[in-house]
Amino acid sequence: MNSFRYIPASNEEIKKIYKFIGIKDKKELFYKIIGDISLIEEKELDFMPAQMDELSLYKYFSDINDKLRDSGSIPVFAGGGIYDHYVPSAVDAIMSRAEFYTPYTPYQPEVSQGTLMALFEFQSMLASILGMDAVNASMYDGAESLAEAVLMSLRIYRQNCQTDSDIGNNKKIKILVSKSVNPTYIEVVKTFIKDLGIVIEFTDIDSEKGYTDAAHLTEKLQENKNICAFIVQQPNYFGIIEDLEIIEKIVHSEKSDSSSKPHLIVCSSEPFSFGTIAPPGFYNADIFAGEGNSFGNYMNFGGPLLGLFAAKKEFIRQMPGRITGKSKDSKNQDAYLFILATREQHIRRQAATSNICTNNSLNALRAAVYLSLCSKEGFKEISLLNLKLSHILCEKLIDTGLFSLKYAGNFYNEFVLEINNKKMNKKMNASVFIDEMMKKGILAGISLEDDGNEVLIAVTEKTGIKDIDNYVKRAIEIFS
Amino acid sequence: MKKFPGSKGLVFNEDLLINQSSKGLSGISMPSNNLSGAHISKTAKDYIDAKFLRNEKSSPLLLPEVSESTAVRHFTRLSSWNICVDTAFYPLGSCTMKYNPKINETIASLNNIRNLHPMLPAGYIQPILKIIYEFNRLLCGLTGLDEFTFNPQAGAAGEFTGMKIIKKYFEVKNEKRNIVLIPDSSHGTNPASSYIAGFTPVEIKTFFADKPADIKNKSKGYIDINELKKYINKDVAAIMITNPNTFGLFEKNIREAAELMHKNGSLVYMDGANFNAFIGNCRVSDFGVDILHLNLHKTFSTPHGGGGPGSGPVGVKDFLKEFLPVPYISADRQAANKKQAANDEQGYYYELKNKREYSIGRISSFYGNFAVILRAYSYLLSLGRQNISKISEIAILNANYMKKKLKDTFIESDPFPEELCMHECVLNDNVFQSEGISTLDFAKSIIDYGFHPPTIYFPKNIHGAIMIEPTETESIKTMDSFIDAMKEIKKKGNKYGSKSPKNTKTGRVNEVLANKNPIFK
Question: Would you say domain A95-371 falls under CATH 3.30.830.10?
């Protein structure tokens, strides 16, 4: 048996093709195409492992899966941009349909109505959750989506500047970012804007409350000209709920000393929060960029995730990525397709609003199925459950006397605790604490800094009271 | 009468799910979590300030209210409206729509693997880091490059990463170079990515005419060295070459072009989206390439997911390693000794590192699309050294089989009749036009025969382009059937074409209407 199971050509048929195209063998085929560039010889493929039959392959990965029992099937109290929510079986069942996972981007709408209508539903549901006008068909992940939001804001700002003589084009454009935004997101934004002549500046956080310092924001906006956007995260990196009402007033205020008002960009890595707290659209956010992995997706060791992108209707032609729209077909039925494609790279090349092509469509579909199952009340209920459970754990941990709450602001499902080293016999920093908890089969959180005492802890509906009580019990054991 | 796969059958109508709601229904099973009575009765106000709460009046939540069974039926019906690789030949040029092996899906669904939080301590994720590390070594072997990053989430992100590396490289060398040369046969993402990275893309002409009569004098379909020389100066940072290019042709002068670039102090970036033409037989390092991106969702068999997720790893030569994005995985024997974590047979301890001397920085939330990398790794292990070179050989054979088989009817449409193509072949619309059939009509017609249309109107410099990529996972019978359908469409003429597709549930979609008055939710 010389054939390979993914290739439907017998040796006879291969010979037949060679004969038909008038080529003797592989050597001649390549020689006629690439000339005298050397081909990889068989012995040079030694770096490749020998082929594995399907059973061996399954066993190989199944063994790895077994080895990961103590990291892949333990209670997860770590967030930091990705949250361990339960994925119902119906989501997996639908998403294992090849009709959804094996097609390409729906360039031919007549044979892609399934994907397109599901994406339309995704956009509609997300628009209502976020309270935003227009949502696109997905970006890669929260960080990249935020970077694209900055580029979009910059484009709009520059266009406005061209018609506004008050603002010199030669002046450096700035973006202002709250220090409470996920540091990884900030790193990615920096990578994207590095060679574009944009300056990034930061606003402080209120060290007691843990949210953006409104007075500092006002000050920053007054002393700087040419600010195209202010970025704030909701809930922020420390889990704290930002007062977007106040922030919006400051950012969009006439007094911000610029004839072109800065955009308010709200990002989020836990949109489940918007089942409980008011969404960014309610606060007149201009652009929303964030992570949607919480809806029906696995953590997958950090990818693929689901980049969410939304904006006000007036900016729709400046949005990056694919947008699904509704139209009519030749029989006057409702039909779906990608719209406003003239924004995109395959038509506009360098003048496109983004270089993005392949996005994370299947993850968006997972979210669509998940949210469809949730229902309106169910979504709110799960959202509330996250809030409750996190507050229960937080309270119980503080009651042990081992920890104190770092920030006094209201939080959603994530919070920062400081280890009370002063009071304890056993000194330990956050990473050691997390390591010790791992030994007891619990991912207890994320250490905020190397050698620091602060632990960022997240709770989802997947961890019940039993897990929470176990967390508390084990923590006490570790410190005693 | 020939029998084609396309047929009519019962298809289901299905309304938007939101229109099927009955108040109070839900498809979710709420976890009980063993909450105690006191907590059950509490509301959000008991935990957070009421001013933060969502208000149904000002922010209505429009989610469907249906049972699990209704939701499942809804999406199952929707799925039946899609053509996909598993149901039909999908010869979408430059997209490499090969078969997606099922074992890879099984592996990616293993429960402990898919539930891994990305910030677990390194000691608990050794097997995962090892997979990424080993896959890196395999890609290096296959390309002749020295290290890959897996952080880019798709091809365009890979291009962007590559362009940023080039930017940083010249910044460190203290040279101001702003131009990236891009042949006009490149993917649209190339100029877009280089522009977003802060470069000025400059287009090089590779194709001057698509009438066969002019071809001998003017057009070659690949980079002309004399033409290229006109563009080379000290502002040029790099050339970005799609190879094989979007005409499906090998860039015959790539080595000479690379030499010229290197002599000028510039770098050579290769768009490896079409690497399916080379895998197992050619190394891009032999072409003089310094930086390359690959598309795991093309050459490496991972499914396209109806538009993603993909993965666009970027590989570089040794001298550019330190410019790669962070985080990256390091393998260390000494660390293994220290940590006594000798569970790896090679004695390595794997770690995620955040510092690199000249790193361009971070480009993604975590480490790229791990679940896609896992599928691609599984694919390479299935093939092994015994089968890896068959992939590109048969992909090329199949494309040339189609190209030649089409000649009797479509010779006037072949812009490169003398050339062997690589993984795909391109036609212009001369022959169809002579029957009054536009490329769009052809594409919509072939749907009725049970095939996904090829890529159309791309590349732009081929008039009414039709770009066919069969891949190695299609049989002679399937290719023959597709070719017969093309010939029949030509015979039937424009009367049929302009009204197609006829067998699909949805007829031709009105694009003008959709863009004039966008409805997007």
Answer: no
